[in-house]
Amino acid sequence: xxRTPSFDVCAVGNAIVDVLAPCDSGFLEAQGLTAGSMQxxxxxxxxxxxxxxxxxxxxxxxxxxNTVAGVGSFGGRxxxxxxxxxxxxxxxxxxxxxxxxxxxxxxxLAGGATGVCxxxxxxxxxxxxxxxxxxxxxxxxxxxDADLIGASAIVYLEGYLFDPAPARAAFEAAAAAAxxxxxxxxxxxxxxxxxxxWRAELLAFIxxxxxxxxxxxxxxxxxxxxxxxxxxxxxxxxxxxxxxxxRGPKGSVVFGEGGAERVEVAAFxxxxxxxTTGAGDQYAAGFLLGLARGLSLEDAGKLGSLAAAEVIAHxxxxxxxxxxxxxxxxxxxxxxGPD
Length: 339
What we know:
Layout: E1 7-12, E2 16-22, H1 25-30, E3 38-40, H2 43-52, E4 57-60, H3 63-73, E5 78-81, H4 88-99, E6 103-104, E7 115-121, E8 127-132, H5 146-150, E9 152-158, H6 165-180, E10 184-188, H7 192-209, E11 212-216, H8 217-224, H9 229-239, E12 242-246, E13 252-256, E14 261-265, H10 279-292, H11 297-312, H12 323-329
Parallel strand pairs: 1-5, 1-9, 2-7, 3-8, 5-6, 9-10, 10-11, 11-12
Antiparallel strand pairs: 2-4, 7-8, 12-13, 13-14
């Protein structure tokens, strides 16, 4: 018999510290960057870009790390598996994730450097990211805590981990441990460029090992190589138990029961979009918390929309206001979580 989970969500991802700065399209062009993209860079390119960027802010990030921070802000129980180095930024990341109540005990890498993501944000809130993975891509199978995963209702896997081969092996080990314990496996596609690079592998993994998929519109189109949203969304809904596709200001579309159930969830209103960094991560936080606590697809989607609206209204990828209090103020159900 499957035991009662101790955690709502355990995420496995790239442990990254974000550096966010404003820019204009001219800066992106001068740096040879494609607006809205994410690309991997080496240490030298990362340092050069940092020197060229405008003054900004540093904040602990990483897609899945942002999501479990959001789960914690909702009052949920969350855990995280990711690799930082035994350096100053690694200490910052560890402090920040513990400060929001997330369980994080992955041993740091001795030597090397903690991963950094340079994020340049244009006036419309769009972010262009250059990531030096550093220690993050040194996550190994032996870092996967099967007991921790078995104690979590949902294990959430970050699609960016498909880039480094050792981390991909850890990713697969986490999914296997989750299913062995009778838990659900969720994946975020992370970025359309990741999907283009690993489309066949991602599809195979989704069909064989995934129960829940989260994606945005561009990632969905890349996965099925079509611009027909309804066709692609329906296809995704058929191959997993639950799928949620975010569409920016159009809200999100959620599928359940092998695609038989389709729910349209409106976006929460935002006075001004400041920075879209973390919007999908925070949607995932609310949505996964809702699923972990047995809420309906619609109610889970509403929690996701609420969290996304909070994060795009300020700089940085993590909540600055208690999502639990915002949900209560909006009359949204949070369900009951682990003791």
